[in-house]
Amino acid sequence: MIALIRYNFATTLHTQRYLPPVFLFLGLLAVLTVNGGGSLPAAYASAAGALFVSSAWLATAVLGVDDPAQRAIVVVSAGRSLKVLLASVLSVLLGCLVLLVTGLVFPLWMGSYRLTPAGLLLGVEAQLTGACTGIAIGLPCSRLLFRRQGHALLTAVALLMGTLFTQGLPPLNRLLRLMATTDDPARLLAPGGAMLLVAVALLATATAATQFLSGGKP
Amino acid sequence: MRLEAVGKRYGRGGWVLRDVRAEIAPGEVVAFAGGNGSGKSTLLRILAGVTRPSAGAVTGRPAVVGYVPDRFSPVERLSAMAYLTHMGRIRGLTTQTASARASGLLERLALVGGADSPLRTLSKGNGQKVALAQALLVEPELLVLDEPWSGLDASAHGVLAEIMGEVAGRGGAVVFTDHREAVTRARASRTYVVDGGRVVLQGSRTQPPLTGVVLTGPDTGPPPRTLDWQTLQGVRAVHGGETRISLTVERAHADALLQLALRHGWSVVDVTRGVDE
User: Fold this and answer.
1) What is the ipTM of this complex?
2) Distance of residue A3 Cα from the nearest chain B Cα, in angstroms
3) What's the rounded Cα separation, in Å, for the pair A217 and B19?
4) What does the alpha-carbon distance between residue A117 and residue A106 come to, in Å, rounded to a whole number?
5) What's the pLDDT tens digit per position in B148-178?
6) Domains in chain B, start-ordered, CATH in brackets?
7) What residue in A sits closest to B140 (Cα-Cα)?
């Protein structure tokens, strides 16, 4: 598994496909939190929203590096296609962790918030929820299931918009609305944890569906 | 390893393969011959375990499989050595073992262009050598080769034939495709013909008597014209370079080969009847 993750990092770094989603994340984070106003949960809600969109893009980028012939070689070398897919998901999650740290620190640097352990933990919960939900959308919209990039992009945008803007839809919209309207982070830890569990379940379902559907592809 | 009533279709499209029944025994070299678009590559992807069949089952696939697809397009900025080291680690080797194994294979296949140069700078033939090397990093129990001679030079043809023989000699199975009947007949102990998604056993062959032929260029005058020896009927092995070459050929085709070689400016140094492959 570590060898596959190393391979994913090497190929993604060499092709520089990570740059657009990383720049998108940094740009959104800067625009949404640069004024330093509002509450800390609201700032971390913005970071979680930015990571949601960027992680979906990062997932499609990592899974799109290898063309079908090279992916076949990697699958045969690893022995199981599920192992290769799980390594890709873990690689994207590791990349998202780096962005998550930036998302935790940048709002604190820009504004003057009262930092508490509960506030920091809520920031981690929210961004992990955003990352897992984003990857869950990126996986089925990747090259594994879509041969035409235009179709993949349209599907991904529709799913991202629907997940982000459908009022009260768990996990992301419900969590972000709570964070935007509640100033006390300690009160949001429990619902934040529940939404993170929903996001992890969503990611597991998307991984299983992608694995099943990609097995019959050419 | 056995394919039982295997079929493949994509979505609601037509059947690419239908009711395929085939058997691949350890130590055997099996060819799937057929024209472009006949379904050979899809069949090999099913054999290698990359694609799931829509119908039927594949049973008895060995644990260690080496697979060379018909097209090789890795991340081109990686060097051949870095790429092979990654593939070796994915197969469970340590970094040192993977690098040493990769280095040995690239040397044996005579990679031109540098093991540390980016893959994008390699020619098609040298890229194919890297593709072959990745499939051999760990000794395969099943070696699946899709059009493996594509782009390879004459000396690499000989090395590939040796490697196939070695894998089969260790008790592994080798499966390959080629659209040239002369190649499949010369290399395979069992040949299936793929046509329109159907697969038919063309026949197994027993070992025919072989003749060894050694050719050289003339002492004076123009050098002999180059021939693609591997594709000539009955040729089983080729060793040597541009001015001196050693061939193993089926006895029934030896006279025709000698006539062709003489017409192309080669001189006959030695002919030995009853050689081993």
Assistant:
1) 0.86
2) 5
3) 19
4) 16
5) 887 777 777 778 888 888 888 888 899 998 8
6) 2-204 (3.40.50.300), 210-273 (3.30.70)
7) A77
